[in-house]
Specification:
This protein is an alpha+beta fold. It is built from six helices and eight strands. It has one domain: 3-Layer(aba) Sandwich (Aminopeptidase). The chain has an eight-stranded mixed β-sheet. Helix 4 links the parallel strand 5 and strand 6.
Length: 180
Amino acid sequence: MKTLETERMTMTMFTRKDAEELYDYARNPNVGPHAGWEPHKSVAHSRQIIEELLIPTEAWAIRIKGEGKVVGIISLEPDRIRPDANSRELGYNLAEDHWGRGYMTEAAQEVLRFAFCELGLDQVGICTSEVNRRSQRVIEKCGFTYEGTIRRIYQTYDGSLRDSMIFSMLKEEWEALQRK
């Protein structure tokens, strides 16, 4: 996938060299557990995540212009709920010291543009837990439609099962938002 850019950010494909910067924020216990994943234990753990999860799904490393270091992840993964549709699932996380500044909404809007205009997707889905209020706010700002909640569908790193709130955006809905 290609590098994406917004007014304040650059998003590049992850490489193994990003492990230390990923670890710097992903070890924070306030970041991963809201999304159901364990805080990273070491730089080696972050490198393993990059190699096994982020590189294969072509996830973007989010960097703030002028800062240069990795402060988040955003990706378009295979849509687990709609495997037969021309759809991908949006996923993201952000370093805690960058929360509340609109970065993730800005990044998600650029990835949605890429998904619909360059990949030619018909829809993009996103799931979040009922406890992840910050993610829900990004989803709302981007204009996704709530479809419902599937109970006990997502197993977290500690083995517990969580409900998953399901949202989607159709290409024509995205196009209508762009005309506003």
